Amino acid sequence: MNIIPAPSRLTVLSENKTKIDSIGFGESLLSDEAKRDFLDFCSLRDGEPNIFFKKDENLGEEEYIMKTENGKTYIKSASAAGQLYALQTLKQILFQNGFSLPDVEILDKPTHKIRGFMLDVGRYFYTVDEVKTFIRRMAVHKLNLFHFHLTEDQGWRIQIDAFPLLTEIGSKRTNTNFDRIPREGYYTKADIKEIVDYAHAFCIKVMPEFDIPGHCRAAIACYKELTCFERELPVATHWGVKHDVLCAGKESTYDFVYKVIDEMCEMFPDEYFHIGGDEVPKHRWDLCPHCQAKRKELGLKDSDALQFWFMNNIKDYCKAKGKQSFMWNWDLKNDKDIDSDLSFALCNSDTDIGDRAYIDTSAKAYYIDLPYGYISLRDTADHKTKNKNCLGLEATLWTEYVKDMKKADYMTYPRLGAFCENAWNGGIGYDAFEKKLEYYYSFLDYNNIGYAKPHQANPNKLRKPLSVLWFERRQLAWEGLHNIFDDKKIEKMAKEK
User: Fold this and answer.
1) What distance in Å separates the CA atoms of residue 430 and residue 380, rounded to the nearest whole number?
2) Is residue 347 in a domain?
3) E-strand spans in 351-456?
4) Interval 251-271 mean pLDDT
5) Which CATH number goes with the domain that contains 288?
6) CATH number, domain containing residue 74
7) pLDDT attached to residue 46
8) pLDDT tens for each residue of 290-338
9) Rounded distance, CA 2 to CA 432, Å?
10) Residue 494: inside a domain, yes or no?
11) Rounded alpha-carbon distances, angstroms, from residue 346 to 108, 277, 331, 349, 396
């Protein structure tokens, strides 16, 4: 029997199968949304209870034991999460048995504490309903952490009362990579509450990301005093790394950051908070009198050390508010200058992180926005995590080239199926996953989820370089040449000061 992700143990008790004509729930810990989702999947009429739940505090937080017998289902768990995951397994059992119920017993629990999915809405905005769709699909794959990437150079996506221009100006851009189409969108505080509540209904925690001190052009376009050399700048309209970042030397920068964090912590009650930290060019800091004064005040050797101090400082602020902070480790060669209680989203696996806790977000396996020529389905399925101090795994969907749900589906599936195997049970490898692939495609079809076909997900020797070439061709939209000329302007401004 095909179950994705594979459970710890599945035993077929008999050849007996009972046709299910209706679904009824016994007393449970499940939310109304989770029960409705299951009923919608089954498309069966309401009936007398035939799914029964029992709380068993001897089981782990997300563990469950499920037994089906004579058309009835008995589920033991310690929490709503265990009940929810049992239902996701039951969906697949019913689906592949024509909504007849075989007699089976399943013992199941996750290998990893954190099983995450990141959605970048800073580049292209996704509506509340679309975000909810991502969340429902996360639950199907037994994922439990929604990483919400909300701030970017190309768009600020969250209401902050203390700084109204962030959404009035920062949520809009005039065009994208030389097209002529304006883009905009942001989430009100009511929207965020709706999304967080919906995620919680599916036992999914939400980790917001406030990406600092880089990737802040949208904020700088609203409040020019946030950067080192004050000047009028638009919200970024091209992809690529921007050289205008938050000034690390002005006290007003920290006042801004703290106030944004204060409001975001009110909106996101779960314990995780992501503070970015990636792709921070130091050109402005090296020339900025404020940054250099701060560096000398603190006795720091260079601007890299200033960034480490910046990240540690923000981490301490978040920690005082009860948050465990994460940062990307993309630019780091080692972790010696970052406090040990600032955890990594480990996108660059070449970094020596010692005994630091981390989430595996490998850019070589789990950056599912990248073309299949870079990361094939096999690459995702065969990726092995360094288990020491690993808190879990996360698939990341950046959206520079993923502007709508159709494209998101194509990039995400079937890779998310292979990813959730790794996240839930430690992985079964591509060869074993391939045997379940035909079933998985049929399950995705039933759920109206788009996907890449097998020859696309594992491109051959001809398709692979073509896929990469097409992707790299689009990188010409990057404004690297503009950065070179703009740097010269800043150097002139610095000399004049």
Assistant:
1) 8
2) yes
3) 358-360, 390-397
4) 98
5) 3.20.20.80
6) 3.30.379.10
7) 83
8) 999 999 999 999 999 999 999 999 999 999 999 999 999 988 877 788 9
9) 11
10) no
11) 27, 12, 11, 6, 11
